[in-house]
Amino acid sequence: MNGSDYIQIVTKTIKKAYYEQKEAVGAAARLLAETIEQKHNVFVFGCSHAGIIAEEVFYRTGGLAVINPVFFPGMMLNTRPVTMTSSLERDPEIGRIIFEKNRIEKDDLLIIHSVSGRNAVPVEMALRAKEKGCRTVCLTNLSYSSSVKSRHPSGKRLFEVCDIVLDNKGDVGDAAVTVEGLPEKTGPTSTSVGTALMNAVIVDSINIMLKDGIVPPVLMSANLDGGDEHNEKMFREYRENIFYR
Hints:
Blueprint lengths: L2 H17 L2 H16 L4 E5 L5 H6 L9 E4 L13 H5 L3 H9 L8 E5 L6 H13 L2 E6 L1 H5 L17 E4 L7 E3 L8 E3 L1 H22 L15 H11 L8
Parallel strand pairs: 1-2, 1-3, 3-4, 4-5
Antiparallel strand pairs: 6-7
Helix pairs in contact: 1-8, 2-8, 5-6
């Protein structure tokens, strides 16, 4: 298999993940829209490569101004040595600290991305959210997660403790391409599929808000004429719900 096969696999997986889960995508979109309409807060979190989803959906052209990323030193890919992220994401105490220090409150929405769904930090954050009365959406790989044991003291995996579950429909281990002569697979799909699913949720939530008579806080490109002025208006209007400025 080659690069062309990989593109076909990713395209097929995106379509499968969306069309087989339209109900779950719609539920996530409705929850996102309601959270924004009620002026509660939205947070997105992931460890290591899973954190790329948080980077994608905040302060983004065409995205929602009120989506707040949760970036924690030691969990992101700029950590050195980067292998430290794999150790830190297994410590539930770090999950507790991240949750408590990020102003996450009752009726807020926390979106958590974890492909394996087994590590302690994302599970701990989801459990803390449940205790707090914060709603949760997880983006994970159900086949992968179902095949491994939890590393959280509760024995729970992420999909078992979140309100809404979105499955990226990827292969166990994430890599999807077999190359002759190589024992390991290559071509991971989780970032491409996860980004597509999250943007689909955002687009659907925008449609819901418009139907509800709400002007969605959508950002423009700062490189378009009028973009800076438009975005500053969004930042002023939603200043109580934006924590990354």
